[in-house]
Amino acid sequence: MLLVPGTGGAGERSVASPPTIVVIDRQSLFLHVLAGLLESAPLNARVLRFTESKLAVEEATYSDVDLVICELHARPLSGIEVTAELSSRRLKVMLMADSEERQSLLAAAQSGAMGFLTKDVTMEELLDAVRAVLDGHMVMSSALALESLAQFAKRDGDQLDLVRQLSPSELEILTMIGNAHSVEDIACARGSSKKTIRNHLASIYRKLHVTNRIEAVLWAARKGLVEPAAIAP
Q: Fewer CB within 10 A of the end CB, N or C, for the chain?
């Protein structure tokens, strides 16, 4: 699993123990199995189950919810629309899709969701991902991360080498983010403020033509700045 540490931004919602999780999926059997896993030890979550996404968004908006796990092709609101509705309220959203829908899930990486998993992940990887997102990190399943790396490889032949556009400070920060250092860790190591590091990250995204930390880390892995083994299964 690829894990990208949170930025430590202001307004981070605290997580209850045990957490309250909304699960949205049109497939009743998968919904039941996933909810049962989350309700069991070690997570012991309180799970609210929905097959209809609009009702789930209303519940998540007015209830004390820690995480929403939504299938990509939910109805009547899609997973991307659910993410747009809830991200503005600082609610954490994780998107899931069938394994044959990996391309659609990768395309949703710009949606603002904090997790991207296919439904064929192991129970251990799913629970690790849920805990990571609850802690404020971004995650992507190993299969998705490796497929995204392959896409970067295909695009490299048509792109200029963007490494040269990064300043030494930006290159160092990108490498540290890719090696699982948080913004707070990097700020401490460099004697800078977290705001300064986040400004550097914004500049990195712009220069690399990526939109978030996951895409930036995958780009760094492709360039050898991060060990690919770090995101292998």
A: C
Taking a C-beta distance cutoff of 8 angstroms, is the pair 61, 89 a contact?
yes
Q: Where are the beta strands (DSSP E) in 25-151?
A: 46-50, 67-71, 92-97, 115-118, 138-140
**Measured between alpha carbons, how far is 96 from 23 in angstroms, rounded to an integer?**
10
The last residue of a domain, from among 126, 145, 164? 145
Q: pLDDT (tens digit, 9 = 90+) per residue, 88-101?
A: 888 999 999 998 88
Cα distance between the two ends of the chain: 6
User: Are both 82 and 99 inside the same structural domain?
Assistant: yes
Cis preceding linkage at 228, omega within 30:
no
Higher pLDDT, 227 or 32: 32
pLDDT tens, position by position, 34-68:
999 999 999 999 999 999 999 999 999 988 899 99
The distance of Cα 14 from the centroid of its chain, to the nearest Å, equals 18
The boundaries of the domain holding residue 73 are 2-145
- Together in a domain, 138 and 29: yes
Average pLDDT rounded to a whole number, residues 145-170: 70
pTM confidence score: 0.77
List the Cα angle 198/203/207 in 5-degree steps: 145
